[in-house]
Design brief:
Blueprint lengths: L2 H4 L3 H23 L20 H15 L7 E5 L13 E9 L1 H6 L5 E8 L2 E9 L4 E6 L3 E6 L4 E4 L11 E4 L6 H9 L4 E4 L3 H9 L5 E5 L5 E2 H12 L4 E4 L13 E2 L2 E5 L4 H18 L1
Parallel strand pairs: 1-2, 8-9, 8-10
Antiparallel strand pairs: 2-3, 3-4, 4-5, 5-6, 6-7, 10-14, 11-13, 12-14
Length: about 290
């Protein structure tokens, strides 16, 4: 699959994507810094946590910007803030959007929140952006064309991961919280040399891009991460030379109707990816047998 053949307006699409990213990051920062005085407390309760005014404002801006170029009849829009139902969107092309990944970190002012936008074709990401508002950087990727870092000043540089040779030297990036006992037991038994604690999924994957971490793991429990948590981070990582798969090493699939990503997913800089997936499967089988 060559995305430029499938999407003739790829260049203008990438420009639109980057415009949406920078504009939405400005909106998020205006709320985060207090310049926008709208109440940042949860204005709506939902199972997955608080929805802030910033979240909704960024989402509205992203949708308006993308839909001006990408017709909603041809391009589906799967957004955390507008998703309804359990049926997959019918379009081959689907935008998957998380306007604010790491809402709790945003509210707690850790700075570790991100913005995710991905375009998928037949359930796989082909164009993606992860924005880091507090770092004033965005990372974007095109399927088959690499991953790039862009600064607020407009400097664009290619990004490549840096694999390591020793399994025991790998650093796991993990949340400070949100771990049930099964997940805790799993990561305690995997042979990581160190742990790096970071908020949102997008921020975690960027630490792998920047060589601060090597591996990220998601394991569902009573709940599960959603499509919009992974679609954009996956592509920026894999286009930088990393790997991102289910524990059985098959590709992650999106827009299946149920947006929840059940099971285990492992993202890495490519170091010992297959071996870690196999170990995770073995450890979970043993844990589940003993419980």
């Amino acid at each position: 699959m060559v995305i430029s053949e499938l999407l003739p307006n790829l260049d203008s699409g990438l420009t639109t994507l980057r415009t949406a990213g920078w504009g939405a990051m400005e909106i998020l920062q205006s709320y985060y810094s207090g310049q926008n005085q709208t109440n940042l407390n949860a204005n709506e309760d939902k199972q997955d946590g608080p929805v802030t005014a910033a979240d909704l404002a960024a989402n509205q801006y992203i949708l308006a910007t993308l839909q001006a170029t990408f017709n909603p009849e041809e391009f589906g829009y799967l957004s955390e803030e507008t998703h309804q139902g359990n049926e997959p969107l019918p379009q081959d092309w689907v935008w998957i959007i998380d306007p604010l990944d790491g809402t709790r970190d945003f509210i707690d002012k850790t700075g570790e929140y991100a913005l995710h936008i991905a375009l998928t074709y037949r359930q796989r990401p082909v164009l993606a952006l992860v924005g880091m508002p507090e770092a004033q950087k965005l990372y974007y990727a095109i399927q088959g064309q690499g991953c790039f870092r862009e600064t607020k000043a407009g400097a664009i540089t290619p990004v490549k991961v840096k694999p390591k040779t020793e399994l025991e030297s790998l650093t796991l990036v993990v949340s400070r919280s949100h771990r049930d006992q099964r997940f805790q037991d799993l990561i305690d038994r995997l042979p990581f040399g160190d742990r790096h604690y970071v908020g949102s999924v997008g921020c975690k994957i960027v630490t792998i891009l920047e060589g601060q971490s090597d591996v990220y793991i998601s394991l569902s429990g009573k709940s599960a991460a959603k499509d919009w948590d992974f679609a954009a981070p996956e592509l920026i990582l894999t286009e930088a030379g990393g790997e991102f798969t289910y524990f059985d090493q098959t590709p992650v699939v999106y827009n299946r109707g149920d947006v929840r990503q059940w099971g285990g997913i492992l993202a890495s800089n490519g170091s010992h990816h297959g071996a870690l997936c196999e170990q995770a499967v073995e450890i979970l089988a043993e844990l589940d047998q003993n419980n």
